[in-house]
Structures are given as C-alpha cells and as structure tokens.
Fold this sequence. Notes:
The chain is α/β, with parallel strands linked by helices.
Amino acid sequence: MTEQLKLEVRNKKLIENEGFEFKDLNGNGVLDPYEDWRLPSSVRAKDLAYRMTIEELAGNMMIKSQRMGLAQEDKEKTSHDGLLDEEVYEDKNIFIGQINHGSTGHIIDKNLRHFILRDNFSEEEIAEWTNAMNEVAESSRLGIPVIIASNSRNENAERTFGMNDAVGVFTTYPSTLGLAAAYLGDKARNYHPDGDYEYSIFKEFGEIARDEWKYSGLRKGYMYMLDTATDPRWQRFYGTLGEDTELITKAGEDLIEAFQSDELNSESVALTMKHFPGGGARENGFDPHYKEGKFNVYRTPGSLEKYHLPPFKAAAEKKVSSIMPYYSIPAHDKSAVQNYKGSKIPFEPVGFAFNQYFIQDILRGDMGFKGYINSDSGILDNMAWGMMHLEKQDRAACAINNGVDLISDTNEVEWIIKAYEEGKISRERLIEANIRLLTEMFDLGLFDDKTYVDPQKAKDFVADEENKKKAYSAHQRSVVLLKNKENVLPMKDKAKVYVDFLHKEADKAETFRKEAIEELKDREDIEIVEDAKEAECIFVQITPKSGNYFSATPGLLELDLCENKTNKATDGTEYTETTVANIDKLGEYRKIADENGTKVIISVNSTMPWLLEKAEKNADALLAHFETFTSAQMDVLTGKFGPTGKLPFTFPKGEEVIAVDEEGICVSPNDVPGYDKDKYMPEGMTYAYLDECGNEYKLGFGLGY
C-alpha cells in the first residue's frame, strides 16, 4: 500500500492528485512525471532532463566548491540570515582561475546544482546551510534541488597534510590507513565483536559516517581512494588504504554497502570513489596535479591489471554511484606492455578523464559500471594533460563525449554551452549525462521528503556516545607495535613518563606536545614529569611532514633531516625540504636513557612509509600509528589495550631501495606494492626495513604482548 511521503516546500506549492500530495516544482499546477514520487527514479529523471534547457543541462554537469556564509567576514555579502555567502570574487588556485558568483548566482544564474562543502562548522550549521541552499534552488524554474558533496570528514587526518576538508565535528576515527591497520589486526586474531561474524571496521565506520552526513544534509562523498599505493613518495599515500589490493577491494565493497546499501535509496549517502584506474603508479612520487607528475608509469608487465584495477572492478559490481578518473596520462614510452584480459591496452596520451578506452572499454564495457563519471578538479583548466593545446570548449567536448558526466570544481558552464553551439556535443549526450546525475538525486529523495533536514536530529546523532566509543576502539586497534626490545612494553604501572612531540615545524611541535600532555594528564596509570632525566620512559611522538601537496615536488621519506635537503625535480630544477625539525633530540634522549636506565619509546605518525632508521636506532620500543589519538597510543603502551594493529604497507629499507638513476628509473618499481617489490629488484637486494631485533617491517607485520 502506497504511503504519503512527508513533503516540505518553502517557495513552491503542494498539489493533490488521486488523494496524494506532490510538490509542484515547476509551478504549472499540474502533476508532471518528474514530480510524482510514486514513479521510478529513471522515469522521473528522463522526464526532467528533456524539460531542461541547454543552460540547465550544462549547469547540472558541473560541481563547484561553495563557501558557507558563516565563513564570510563581511556579513553584508551574505543572505538567509548569514547562512549563504553571496560574494562575487576571483577564485584562483592550483586547479582553476575563475569568478566565484556566490550561492544564489551559482544556483539561479549558472544553474549549478552540485556543490562541494569544504568549510568546517558544526553539524547543525551545516544542516541549516544545506536547507538554505535548497530553499534558493526550490525557487528556480524547475525547482531542481542541490546535492552537497564533501571529502571525508570522519578521519583524524589534519596534522600531517591538512587535506581533509574538516575534522573534529563528526565522529572521528583514525585515518584510512589506520582503518586498514585495524582491519588487518582484526582479521589476524579472528575478531568478532558481540559474535558478529559479518563485522567489518569499514562497515561500522561507514554506517556511522553515513547517518551523520545524511542528517546534516551531506548526501555525496568524494571518497574513498581505491588507489593501490605503490610508490612510497606519493604525497597522497596518506589518504589511501595502503598497498594490499585484496584489502583495498574488501574495504571498497564494505564502504559502498555501508554508505549506499545494495541499492541507492533515500537513506543513502552516494559515493564517488577514486582515482580510476589507480593513482598509485607515480613516477618517483611526482603528483599529476603538476606537469612534472602527469604520467602513470607501468614499468612492470602485468602490474596495472594485477595490482591497480581490481578494486575498481569490485566497486563497479557493487554499484558505486560514481567513479572519478585521475588526471594522469598512461605513459606509453616509459611503460612495459600492459594487457587486460589478454588484450593489449592502448595507452592514448591523454588524461584518464579524456581516455575513451579506459572509460568506455574497461570501466563501462568490461566492468559494467552503470553510474556516472565525475572528473577530478581542473580538467578544463590547469590539469588538462594531453589536452592543454585545445580550447576549453574542446576539452569539455572531449571529456563529455568520452564519458565524463560531471566536471569537478568549476562553474564555467559556458564551455559546455559553446561546445554544444559549435556542434561538438549533442543535446542527446547532455541529456544522457543529466539522466544519470538526476537519477542519483531522485534515488536519494532530494526531490521529495529529503530536500530539507532537521538540524536538531543531526546534533542528536553526532552526540551519540556509543559511536564515539566505537571510534576510540578503532584508534586503539590501529596502533602497530614494530619493536619491543627486551620486552620494555608494557610499561609498569604508574611509570614516570616524559612526553615530547617532533614535527616539521618547531612551533607546531610545541603546540602538539602541550596538547598531548593535556590529553594524558588525568590518567592514573602514569605520572607525567617535566624533566626527561626524571623519567622512567621517554615517550616521543613524531609527525613528519613531507613536502607540500600544493607544490610539484614528490615526498621525502627521511626522518633524519634537520637541515633542508636539496633534491632535483624531473625537470632538473632543485628544491629543498625538511621532514622533521629538531630530530637530533632523539640522540639526546638516547644518551639520557643510557645514562639513567630510562627507556625511549617512539611513535611515528605513519602517513607515508618513512625511512625509519633514525627513529628505530634510538628506540627501545617503536610504534607506527595513523593519526591515532595520543590517549589510545598510551593505552597500548601501558598494556591497558594490547597491540593488535598490523602494517597496511611496507616500510622501505633505506635510500638505496628507492634510488633513481639518471634516466629516472627507480631501483624498486614504482608500480608494484612494497610487499612484492623484491621480485623485481636486483639480485640480493631486498626492500623492507629490518630492525636490530630482526623484525621485518612488511605488510601485515605487527607485534603483540
């Protein structure tokens, strides 16, 4: 029996038909198919797409970052009681250079309906903002609602790279690498909480995040990275799930099930998984946001099919709503022949968003992907690799004709319109793309009872203490014990502990040290002391920072850099970098320890596979953590929680195993995961780090008590 949906309108009216109420979104007083919530989403989407003008079709095919009015200092430039930012300004960054037209300008004048939220305000404020955005959208000709996307917000991943849009508002787990470390530990010990044999930390995490997002009005996630991380210097290693293709595949499946369910519905958050066909095969760490790193290099026969593609095939089969291709170009002249199911893959020298074979033949054809293709940011502007010689309307035409349905982080709808006017894109192709995009919005209920959300409900759900307990358990389980010389851990009860923090920037290190002490001060199982010479244990957290995401350089892995180290980019230019300031303090602590019988415990924030020798040689006990709460680390050190985490990647032995020759070829292959690199290295050379106790820091390694 059909039940009436609870509908809310703020600008349009409700109409009655056959005893039911519907939104009269186009204001014509008639129930049109796209307004009829009883019909299938595909039927409604097709009806609406054919009603849309070229301008409306083009606008719906772009997604733009939109600032909240709460972030606007000049409140005269806001609307809706300060919720919406209406400032018109020039927006320049590494992706684009364009005019930002403000919230109403984007919705009404530019016909945009897809937006990316990057601000970090409370769940209540986000809910109020999404409501205001939809109130404006409802007033438009067809009443098409907005859909708000965000990068991930439920991982504690800001100290090292700062690339998460927002942390600390929603329930906070460790980083995705931390989730992977906890998963491997759970698997190794056959962990089934409450007898749930279907339990997965990825499902638990996804279900909590899904509800926090949907109640706040965030219905599309730019997540998660399915890239198999095979080059340790890649700056985006930190956002991956590591190097284990099987684990990444499993995580992707579980996350899709948690966020979307078996079929996208009004309780789902739609996912855009990335970066097809895998961004991990970097050329010595250089990132494709810049020309220096624009190539995916596959020097190892079979590496693309074996290591990089499987997670995307699984995601397609699980009906992920959208997939994002990477910027990079598959390098023909630097790669070995790559086959897919026995046939040679043609490496067309254009970025994957423009690459017909990868999108149409592999992703849509063989993998059977039915969702929509969402490009990465800047493919019409600064990252149109292989297409930089073309005009913007031609770039738009090539991307759209080869399969892209939504172009990211731009509002320049004029290039799609111009391509259409010049006969380079057909109206039918624009309609096809819009049907895919609108189907997602209909499935999510955005046209019906999910247009507006209740801010109080968002607040209540985010405040759930049970969810916080689950997240804290994940922090504890993410800690990997790498070294425990002479079983110095767990520490004895009420041990005197000196706490320090090392970071790339000395001032930040002191701030984080004080925060760590504050986090630990009320514990009854340890005593915090202010002088290392009075301590029984010296506990040092190291959070290295390698490079800058907003620069062309690859990451450095050394923990032993006090002075800037000079390196050469692929174009021969030099750059300098430091990963940790005041690293010599480790030697000072080792000396104090040797003189006083103190133990040195070092915990490294393992956002990348750092070169660990400097830390390991000075440590009695060494831990890898992944943006893990200090208190959860201390639980492991004191034995309150025994270490269970396992490494989601392999730490390299030293500079010699990532050395690059004059021709740019690395001694260990960039396209092969760390655990398998030995197969392709010179005879007698091994890749993984080996400590003084004989522990090999390889994928899946982790000690216990």
